[in-house]
Design a protein that fits this description.
The complex is a heterodimer of chains A (109) and B (114). Helix content of chain A is 0%, strand content 43%. Chain A is mainly beta and 109 residues long. In chain A, the strands form 3 sheets. In chain A, strands 2, 5, 6, 9, 10 and 11 form a 6-stranded mixed β-sheet that branches. In chain A, strands 3-8-7 form a 3-stranded antiparallel β-sheet, with no helix packed on it. A two-stranded antiparallel sheet of chain A has the order 1-4. In chain A, a hairpin with a 7-residue loop joins strand 9 and strand 10. Chain A is globular, with a radius of gyration of 13 Å. In chain B, strands 2, 4, 5, 6, 9, 10 and 11 form a 7-stranded mixed β-sheet that branches. Chain B has a 4-stranded antiparallel β-sheet with strand order 1-3-8-7, with no helix packed on it. The chains are: A mainly beta (109), B mainly beta (114).
Chain lengths: 109, 114
């Protein structure tokens, strides 16, 4: 079965510092990986997906199949980046998403 | 992105009653809608997948007779929690999508069963 692991429940950094939110997955096939973000009192929204290989709000994530990881990175964190971040996996050809437990990022001034 | 709404945003009910939650895709036709449950400080757990005009597919461990899902049109799916009990209190979130396209999430419904 597929599984997504986000080892950090909480992550706190200072404004301007680099940030990395870790995500590891287990799946034997070719997955699609996503990062979703949920700002305070807002709905879950897609941040980025690995197949698009784009940078959104300064965030990037690279799929490392050897390490089965899809870590989310930003070189200079901003206070408005404070939110819950969820990593998610989808099997190839499937519609269903499997979510990690999320990491709460706090960017301090 | 597309907009998905949920109604009501929060509901409080007595134990033993049934509660219906609506999920609507406002500006696109969703062939598939998903229902999730989110416990405090935990991840989203997929409950079921519903396709328009067909029976929902429930995840293992989810009671289909307790959580009735209807997907009558390409823009509306409903989740009915039947004979609700306090342990059903949770945050219920729907999402809508078309095949393997991006899923768009609703704002969620907070259910409290007294």
């Amino acid at each position: 079965a597929q599984r997504v692991t986000q080892p950090e429940k909480l992550l706190s950094v200072f404004k301007g510092a680099p940030v990395e939110l870790k995500c590891n997955y287990s799946y034997s096939g070719s997955p699609e990986l996503f990062w979703y973000v949920q700002y305070s009192r807002q709905r879950l929204q897609l941040l980025l997906r690995h197949i698009s290989r784009e940078s959104i709000k300064g965030f990037t994530a690279d799929l490392n199949k050897g390490e089965t990881s899809f870590h989310l990175k930003k070189p200079f964190a901003q206070e408005e980046d404070s939110a819950m971040y969820y990593c998610a996996l989808r099997k190839g050809g499937s519609e269903k998403l499997v979510f990690g437990k999320g990491t709460k990022l706090t960017v301090n001034p | 992105g597309a907009v998905v709404s949920q109604h009501p945003s929060r509901v409080i009910c007595k134990s033993g009653t049934s509660v219906k939650i609506e999920c609507r895709s406002l500006d696109f036709q969703a062939t598939t809608m998903f229902w999730y449950r989110q416990f405090p400080k935990k991840s989203l757990m997929l409950m079921a997948t519903s396709n328009e005009g067909s029976k929902a597919t429930y995840e293992q461990g989810v009671e289909k007779d307790k959580f009735l899902i209807n997907h009558a049109s390409l823009t509306l799916s409903t989740l009915t929690v039947t004979s609700a009990h306090p342990e059903d209190s949770s945050f219920y979130i729907c999402s809508a999508g078309r095949g393997t396209d991006t899923q768009y999430f609703g704002p969620g419904t907070r259910l409290t069963v007294l």
